[in-house]
């Protein structure tokens, strides 16, 4: 995730795995260190089954190696992908234009940053650090944060720098630098991690840091999920027959209000009430409002718009048409 896998290591790793297990080997690496293309090439020669790439206009830097380059490198070999380079170019051109719309969200990091070999921060984490600092008008402190990250990681027992623990370490490092006092502000996620709710740390957590974070409180030593109370049957009971499957119950647990609106619209459709314009419009408008989190004034306006003749559109189509109206497309 930080582009730390070297070509030589990729070769030995893939060959070793292929000898020991009969499963597809999937390689994911980032370009940050500048080694990704060579790493993928050596892995391919060693027999890797899948390598992750990004279309060229979205590749390099903290992203993945370019798709077209890898496709061309294996062209005419037993590992030829058969992909059409002309079509890939069309895709790249399209996303080159899309990318321009999000330029202000991009990091200011160079195309290759060999410092990653020292601070070992993955690409996605680097982008988040830049955004966090930009929001605090402290982008100039990025070098300080990059130095702080490995220190925090060591103090927290070397958690892996992948989601979610990468964000836990990164956020604490940003706070340490921006506030000017280490661990002056401690996010709840850091407290939960130190308490053991993300599992046991790979190495012992620094005693002084542990004291700052949770005081005299003892960390758990069991599997965190064992402490959770069963919620499925409770949620199922709350739905009072509205759920038609286990998937419906899970949808409700994850997105309560959206799921309830969906169930209501689905029931109307099943009962053949498509001709009941007012009922459908009311449900569609409520659904759209929940999704868009609009103000009271906006909700009233949308409901008035939705009451216009709809040619028998379904509630899903009505909600979609409202979105288009807001975007000025219809």
Short structural summary:
The chain has 330 residues and is an all-alpha fold. The protein has helices spanning 7-20, 36-46, 67-73, 85-100, 116-119, 123-135, 142-155, 165-179, 188-195, 207-214, 232-239, 246-254, 256-270, 277-292, 296-306, 315-327, and strands at residues 26-27, 50-51. It is globular, with a radius of gyration of 26 Å.
Question: What can you see in these coordinates?
Answer:
By secondary structure, the chain is an all-alpha fold. It is 55% helix and 1% strand. Strands 1-2 form a two-stranded parallel ribbon. Strand 1, helix 2 (36-46) and strand 2 form a beta-alpha-beta unit. Helix 7 (142-155) packs across helix 8 (165-179) and helix 11 crosses helix 12. The chain is globular, with a radius of gyration of 26 Å. Residues 294-330 have low confidence and may be disordered.
Our measurement of the CA-to-CA distance between the termini, rounded to an integer number of angstroms, reads 43 Å
Helix content: 55-70%
Return Rg in Å.
26 Å
Q: Specify the overall morphology.
A: globular
Low-confidence stretches: 294-330
The order of strands across the largest sheet is 1-2
- N-to-C SSE string, H for helix and E for strand: HEHEHHHHHHHHHHHHHH
> What integer is the average pLDDT?
83
Strand content: under 5%
Structural class: mainly alpha
Largest sheet: 2 strands, parallel
Number of helices: 16
Number of strands: 2
